[in-house]
Input
Amino acid sequence: MSDRIFKLNSLLKKELGTLIMQEIDFKQGAFATVSRVSTSDDLSQAKVYIQGYPTVDTHYIMQTLEKEKMQIQKVLHKRLYLKILPRIVFVLDRTSTDVSDIDDALAS
Output
């Protein structure tokens, strides 16, 4: 991974995390965090890995983010001065649920 893509991933993670917290209205008690961002080498797309809490609301959170994706993309384009802004693709990050499943299996 080039230094430019690494910096872009960090910048997108920070800005998207702030944007999701401030601009997206989830139902009471539900919230989302950006766990990581992975941008393609040609800067055409950025996979944004989302963790939703509580886990029972993850489907609702992902639907809300998909519905608001174009608005998020527009606001992000205004905030960042980039010639090429990658297309955002939201992906559910299941690492925390996978870890808890492994812990449960080892405990029993």
Residues 3-107 form a domain with the GMP Synthetase; Chain A, domain 3 fold (CATH 3.30.300.20). The chain is about 50% helix and 20% strand.
